[in-house]
Design a protein that fits this description.
Radius of gyration: 21 Å
Distance between the termini: 56 Å
Strand content: 5-15%
Mean pLDDT: 80
Low-confidence stretches: 1-40, 55-60, 301-305
Number of helices: 13
Shape: globular
Structural class: alpha/beta
Bound molecules: iron/sulfur cluster
Order of helices and strands: HHHHHEHHEHEEEEHEHEHEHH
Number of domains: 2
Number of strands: 9
Helix content: 40-55%
Length: about 300
């Protein structure tokens, strides 16, 4: 079944997809497919939601997976192969495959997607490293991919108009039980360098998106090896980004999706943020006020108050 669908993705079609890829980053091959799904016109998205309300979902599985699959189906041609990635697909590939996806990318998907497209372009099988798929009732898993170098991957599609928060740090040292940040991306912190973050921020502002936001599990630990605050590195990052976006751009750090750990907040940190960012509110991630729950979750974050 899966083989039939992949065979229908002909070499010419893959070549056509790859030929539209701008050369930014080693793994930029993923961008046209994702771009296409994200750019489903508003009226088609609304139609899709209305259809689902009228008829009810036609697939089982978690709501996010159903919604994602519906969007992917609407955006894709008959030959489309449906690949899910991200925290849920990594943690529960069986559920997501049950919802109707053909493949799940496990952990970091950038390299996996690029290798999948290469394999398909050469007429090879879809199944392979970094992926989970079904074989009868069994869920099979390929070897998990090596961590990517963030400087060599694209934080958002370099072509088109869309931007998005720029991921500055991946992985988390804290490994809370309910969160995939450490399980999907590892407990070693990897950071995108200030120069590269600044280049992407500048591109976004030149495209007319004034507000530059960042994705990180812990904003003040940017540049750190062990998860402790590194204000010198945060300052270097913000200085580089300011130089790239000038007065036109607005910088948001310490607010969603780049919150602060409560125990990292200090007078020095607040002075730096006041000087270097445009947000005037900060979000502190306090997971629970209960020491018992924090201990149960392995969350080493301090309760507030
Ligand atoms: S500290 Fe935050 S990002 Fe890190 S594992 Fe815990 S909840 Fe996830």
């Amino acid at each position: 079944m899966l083989f039939k669908k992949t065979a229908a993705l002909t070499r010419a079609k893959v070549r056509n997809i790859l030929s539209r890829v701008p050369v930014i980053g080693d793994h930029a091959q993923e961008l046209p497919l994702l771009h296409r799904i994200q750019h489903l016109p508003g009226h088609e998205r609304r139609q899709l939601r209305a259809q689902e309300r009228r008829r009810g979902p036609d697939v089982r599985g978690p709501p996010e997976a159903r919604q994602g699959l519906a969007v992917a189906r609407a955006a894709g041609a008959a030959w489309a192969l449906h690949l899910a990635g991200g925290p849920h697909a990594t943690a529960e590939p069986g559920e997501v495959l049950e919802a109707g996806f053909d493949l799940c990318a496990l952990g970091e998907g950038e390299g996996t997607l690029a290798r999948l497209l290469e394999r398909l372009g050469e007429g090879g099988p879809a199944e392979g490293p970094g992926l989970a798929w079904r074989e009868g009732a069994e869920v099979r898993r390929g070897r998990r991919p090596e961590p990517v170098d963030l400087d060599r991957t694209a934080p958002f599609p370099p072509s088109g108009e869309r931007g998005g928060p720029i991921e500055i740090t991946r992985g988390c040292v804290h490994a809370c039980r309910f969160c995939q940040a450490s399980f999907a991306a590892g407990v070693r912190l990897r950071h995108r360098s200030p120069e590269v973050v600044a280049a992407w921020a500048g591109l976004q502002v030149r495209r007319g998106r004034r507000d530059v936001r960042f994705v990180t599990p812990s904003a003040l630990a940017y540049g750190s090896d062990d998860g402790s605050p590194r204000l010198d590195r945060v300052e270097a990052l913000l200085t580089a980004v300011r130089a790239a976006v000038g007065k036109e751009g607005r910088i948001f750090l310490g607010t969603f999706p780049s919150e602060l750990r409560p125990e990292h907040v200090s007078p020095e940190a607040l002075r730096l943020l006041r000087r270097a960012v445009d947000n005037r509110a900060l979000l502190l991630g306090a997971q629970s006020g209960s020491d018992r729950l924090l201990a149960a979750a392995h969350a080493r974050r301090l309760p507030v108050g």
